[in-house]
Amino acid sequence: MSELMSALDALASDDLHSLTDGQVLDRTAFLVQLVNRASAELTRTVRRADSTQAAERDGLKSMRSWLIGHARLSQAEASRILRSGRALEHFPALAAGFADGQITAAQVDVVAGAVGERERAQAAEQGIDLAAFDQVWARVAAESPHQSLVAAVQAFEDALDPDGPEPDATEGRRLAIAKHADGSITGRFDLDAVGGEKVQAAIESIVQADRPKGDARTRAQQNADALVQLCDNQLASGQLPILRTVKPHVVVGIDLDDLVDPAMGAGAAGMGFGATISAARARYLACDGSISRIVMGSDGVPLELGRDHRVVTPGLRKAGERRDKACVFAGCGAPSWWCDVHHLIHWLHGGETSLGNSALLCERHHTKVHHGFRVERPPDGRWRTYRPDGTEILIGLPL
Question: Taking the model in full, what pTM does it have?
Answer without folding.
Answer: 0.49
